[in-house]
Amino acid sequence: MNVKQREERRMEALRRVREGQSAEVVAAALGVAVNSVYAWGKRARLGGSKALKAVPKSGRPLKLGREHWTKLKKMILRQPKACGFDRELWTLPMIKELIEREFGVDYYDDHLSRLVRRLGLSVQKPMVRAKERDEQAIKRFVDVEFPRLGKKRDDAVPR
Q1: Tell me: the pLDDT tens digits for 73-131?
Q2: What average pLDDT is seen over the chain?
Q3: Residue 75: inside a domain, yes or no?
Q4: Amino acid 157: pLDDT
Q5: Is 114 inside any structural domain?
Q6: How far apart are CA 42 and CA 45, in angstroms?
């Protein structure tokens, strides 16, 4: 959303509140937080409509645009092997390498983890289970052997 659109949204919120709509209704209609509607109203009361002017966001420009992040998320949602890696699960170093390879951009690891969370993705920890695991033997132990030892089922080995 650009600066002009943000200003228009604020003015629309103020107009709706002046028409008698509640802050909750306005917030829901415009897709903003109720606190934002209250804050805009306060700013308008104290400084007039000039106080609702949107200020361009300062700070360092983004290294990747929205379309790059959309493409990256689609790539991450596929398996790492589909992106040329030999592992089954993604790691941050792999995502970092993928970004460097696809977009020519380098991110600091800690910052990259925050950006990946913004994509709605989270760290996944695989369940480590032995290949030799015998599910029937485990069930038999939990159901038969363990109770004979005088323990409660809640104390049983995690399944």
Answers
A1: 999 998 899 999 998 888 889 999 999 999 999 988 778 888 888 888 887 766 677 88
A2: 85
A3: yes
A4: 53
A5: yes
A6: 5
The C-alpha atoms of residue 11 and residue 37 are separated, in whole angstroms, by: 10
The one-letter code for the residue type at 21 is: Q
DSSP per residue, the chain: --HHHHHHHHHHHHHHHHTT--HHHHHHHHT--HHHHHHHHHHHHHH-GGGG------SPPPSS-HHHHHHHHHHHHS-GGGGT-S-SS--HHHHHHHHHHHH-----HHHHHHHHHHTT-----PPP--TT--HHHHHHIIIIIHHHTT--GGGSPP-
Average pLDDT rounded to a whole number, residues 4-17: 91
In a domain, 83, yes or no: yes
Residues 86, 42 share a domain: no
pTM summary value: 0.48
Place of tokens 């290294």: 63
Largest CA distance in the chain: 78
Question: Number of folded domains in the chain?
Answer: 3
pLDDT at 102: 93
